Structures are given as structure tokens and as C-alpha cells.
Amino acid sequence: MSKLYLVSTPIGNLADMTARAKLVLSAVDIIACEDTRRTGLLLQRLGLPKKSLRSFFEANEQGRMAEIIGELKAGQEVALVSNAGTPTISDPGYKLVRACVAQQIPVVPVPGASAALTALVASGLPTDRFLFVGFLPKKPGKREKKLRQLPVKTTIIIYESPFRLLKTLSQMQAIFGEIEVVIGRELTKLHEEIRREKISQALAHFEKTPPKGEFTLLFHLAKV
Questions:
Q1: Chain centroid to CA 194: how far?
Q2: Which UniProt keywords apply (predicted)?
Q3: 115-220: which CATH topology?
Q4: Can you tell me whether residue 186 is helix, strand or coil?
Q5: How many other β-carbons are positioned within 10 Å of the β-carbon of residue 101?
Q6: For residue 67, what pLDDT is reported?
Q7: Do strands 215-220 and 155-160 pair parallel, antiparallel, or not at all (unpaired)?
Q8: Under the phi-then-psi rule, with left for phi > 0, alpha for psi from -120 to 50, and beta for the rest, what region is 47?
Q9: Which partner from 4, 133, 178, 200 sits 20 to 30 angstroms from 34, CA to CA?
């Protein structure tokens, strides 16, 4: 039976694409991806052959699943990629994996870049116990509830957009006080930045310098 490959792609630096990932993307019949234009450009920049691309994102995930399962059962090899990083991490795909597992279709992970783990290992925070939260709720009330539910003695990893970073930091300061935070921006890219500082210092910096790029926010709560 054909396999579903979960292929990690670079989060910024093309050199982070693994040799195995290139081999898999070269060999499969179909690539399911969030953005066909972006994935097509990635294949081109890596010098890989053109492939049959299937759009696969949150809004069409449910409808696409039956189609992809059918193609796998028909003998087509399929790779799932996200726009950047490891598939299913704050991106669609886990439902497809569950469906494949339920129907005994082999699922093969092809490891590679992940913004969460990249930030964690460079943070200087404890790595023996961590919780990846993904994106916090957009609404302030739901975001506050989520923050108050976070465990202590655990390194917390959050993805945040530049448009909500200041709001999230301000709300965290109101709940947790003057904690230490680590903020990774544009990881692996030309303007990569990792800031390790008090939350008030982070707020002062980003109030003066408006946030730009993709952010990974980490902190470790000793107590609440």
C-alpha cells in the first residue's frame, strides 16, 4: 500500500532542507500543501522536479481528505507539507493522519525544521519539560483564560503574530508580573533575532520598534 509522508520544509533557510526530504519530494506522485504557488516555488528553488500539487489548508481539509485517501489507496505516493516547518504543528493535517491510521495506510514522518524546537533549544530555558501552545486565542477574554491555565515549572512555547505580540505581552505582564521572556523572531532567516529579557524590557523595545516578522515566544513559570 502507498504511504503518506509528512515532510518538514525550511522555516526560512533553504539549506535546512534535508537530503531525505528532497529525495521523498522527488519520488512522490502528489504533494498536498497549504499554498500550491509557494510549494511550487520551493521545488523550483531546490531544483526538484515538478509535481502534482493539491491545495490542503484549514478551509478545505475535510473535503480534500477523502480525495487524498482515495489516491493513496489507488497506489499514489503522497507527501504532506506545510508552508514552513513540520506539518500538522499549528497547521492542518492531523485529521488526515488519523484517517490514514484508521485505514491502516502507512504514515512516514520525515523530520526537519520546526520553529518551536529551534527556539526552545536556543532559549536557555529548561528543556526537560515544555508545553507547545501554538497560537493563543484572538479574543482577550479567551486569551487570558488560556494564559491562566498554563502549568508551572514548564517552559511554555507560543506562536504569535506581529499584530498581537504587544497585546499578548501586556496581558502576560498583568497576569504573571515581571517574568523573564525569550522572543525568537525570523528564526533561521537573514534578520534572525533572539531576545532574552524581562517582559517590561520586551514591551519597551517593541513599543519603540514595531514588531515585524514571525515570532516564537517562550517563558518558564516558577509560580503563578
A1: 17
A2: Cytoplasm, Methyltransferase, rRNA processing, S-adenosyl-L-methionine, Transferase
A3: 3.30.950
A4: coil
A5: 12
A6: 95
A7: antiparallel
A8: left
A9: 133
**Cell 526552545 -> residue:** 120
CA 84 to chain centre: 7
Element (H, E) at 73: helix 61-73
**Stretch(es) of the chain classified as CATH 3.30.950.10:** 115-220
Query: Which ranges in the chain are annotated with CATH 3.40.1010.10?
Result: 4-110
What is the side-by-side order of every strand in the sheet holding 215-220?
130-135, 155-160, 215-220, 180-185, 193-198
Distance CA 112, CA 132 (A): 17
pLDDT tens-digit map of 115-166: 999 999 999 999 999 999 999 999 999 999 999 999 999 999 999 999 999 9
Helix, strand, coil percent content, the chain, rounded in steps of 5: 40, 25, 40
Cα separation of 77 and 131, whole Å? 33
Can you give the length of the chain in residues?
224
* Residue 64 grid cell: 480534500
How big is the chain by its Cα radius of gyration, in Å? Answer: 19
**What's the topology of domain 4-110?**
Cobalt-precorrin-4 Transmethylase; domain 1 (3.40.1010)
- List C-alpha distances in Å: 21 to 27, 44, 56, 119: 10, 14, 19, 22
User: Which tens digit of pLDDT belongs to each residue from 57-86?
Assistant: 988 988 899 999 999 999 999 999 999 999
Global confidence as pTM: 0.92
